[in-house]
Amino acid sequence: MDVTRATAVLDANWLGTSTVPSRALYPHQWSWDSAFIAIGLRHRSPARARRELVTLFSAQWPDGRVPHIVFDPATPPEAYFPGPGFWRAGRTSGIVQAPVHARAVLAVHEAEPDRAFLAELYPKLVAWHEYLRGKRDFGGHGLAAIVHPWESGMDNSPAWDGPLSRVPPAAGFVRRDLEHGHAADRPSDEDYGRYVRLAADYRDSDYTDGGAFVVEDPGFNALLADAELALAEIAERLGLPSDAHREAAARVAKALQETLWHNGFFFARDVRTGSLTPQYTCAGLLPLVLPDLAVAPALLATATGPRFGLGRVHGVPSYDLTAPDFDPGRYWRGPSWFNIGWLVRQGLLHHGEHALAERLRTDLLETAAATDFAEYCDPLTGTGHGTRSFSWTAAVTLDLAQPA
Questions:
Q1: How far is CA 47 from CA 27, 114, 119, in A?
Q2: Predicted TM-score of the model (pTM)
Q3: Kindly report the CA angle at 31 between 138 and 97, in degrees rounded to 5?
Q4: C-alpha to C-alpha distance for 330 and 402, rounded to whole angstroms
Q5: Shortest CA distance to 387 belongs to which of 3, 12, 42, 85?
Q6: Which of 18, 108, 194, 271 could make a disulfide contact with 214, Cβ separation 3.0–4.6 Å?
Q7: HSE-up of residue 76 (Cα within 13 Å, Cβ side)
Q8: Contact (CB, 8 A) for 87 and 203
């Protein structure tokens, strides 16, 4: 439980008002990264954790969306692609990431109660969720759709291969990520070209929601339902009505089960075709974070079965271990990520799987320390991949190291 080293990682990645995921590979503020970072930071510096979230929400768009990147003006434009010049959206990108922020805000408040902090962020969180539940409900089922793979946070997931096949790859751009990471660990040039094409088309539409890639992601929506539950608790602490948030959470959870549940698992749905994607990815395990999930026993059986091997491998594999294209080292196509392990552990605790949750906690702590807080790891060997001194890996280490 190397909390000293984990703290040093977060200190080294602190810019003064926010934390970068990695000084080299990701030199700006990322949305869902900052939520996990705040959850860890609250144990060392609640004030800094509050600043992390306030900084992120200071960049919220008028329509309620929280951008997936807030660019650091002191960082050279050529340090990251696509940078602010590409997005043409001022100091932010134009897409979003998974809505884990309300849960982070609540956790930070509980570490050191600060009513003013809650009061400042509550209306911003409400606007954020209303944007997702309103303008992003393309399928009409009450689920928020993502319009770019990066919005899921699971950028290179095999679940996006089908919907992405409709997108012609862009050309003529320079990949900055390969300057800081091994090509074998990163998305292919063809996939990256599709990501750039989608982002450029979205930008050129003046960020009108829609496009060639419109997908209902079970992980994204499970986190939205959980965020509404957290928002209900925030409202109660502020003396405000909370029923609307609990009702919103229940509607999203119901839509998840009715629309994306099939044969013991939650799959993504391609809204353009109406079809479920066939790949078993870790996104389908994230509904475990919902405490009243009726299908939890069946989902736990899949999680502990041969596809994910939960409790017998390192962390939570991002993709089906039995799939012929499983890759233990390539970005979201097999490796285990520490934030996903943290979320799944929360789900295990909700559903009474305390022994399995403890095994997962111990493994996450040991693997994070052994890999120098790697971005992600091989679920079969525990070998670190991606960049090192990664902020959310250090942050979840700080949280998991706390006494029960």
A1: 22, 10, 16
A2: 0.97
A3: 20
A4: 31
A5: 12
A6: 271
A7: 4
A8: yes
Handedness of CA 8, 156, 314, 253 (dihedral sign): positive
First to last CA, the chain: 14
Measured distance CA(31)–CA(175) in Å, rounded:
21
Residue by residue, DSSP assigns 308-373 as: T-TTTSSS-BSB-TTSTT--SSSTTSS-EEHHHHHHHHHHHHHTT-HHHHHHHHHHHHHHHHHTTS
d(CA 177, CA 360): 30
Per-residue pLDDT of 340-393, as tens digits, reads 999 999 999 999 999 999 999 999 999 999 999 999 999 999 999 999 999 999
Helix (H) or strand (E) holding 77: none
Q: How many CB atoms lie within 10 A of CB 263?
A: 8
* Res 187 pLDDT > 90: no
Burial class of 244 by CB neighbour count within 10 A (0 to 12, 13 to 18, 19+): middle
- Residue 375 bears catalytic tag: yes
How far apart are the C-alpha atoms of 268 and 266, rounded to whole Å?
Answer: 7
DSSP state of 17: S
Beta carbons of 71 and 83 less than 8 angstroms apart: yes
From the candidates 155, 161, 209, 366, give the one annotated as an active-site residue: 155
Strands (E) in 210-258, as ranges, are 215-216
Q: Which residue has the tokens 């705040």?
A: 38
Model pLDDT for residues 270-283, shown as the tens digit of each residue:
999 999 999 999 99
For 3-400, CATH gives: 1.50.10.10
Q: What would the pLDDT profile of 279-332 be if each residue is shown by its tens digit?
A: 999 999 999 999 999 999 999 999 999 999 999 999 999 999 999 999 999 989
At which residue do the structure tokens 């911003």 appear? 124
| CA 280/CA 97 separation, integer angstroms | 21
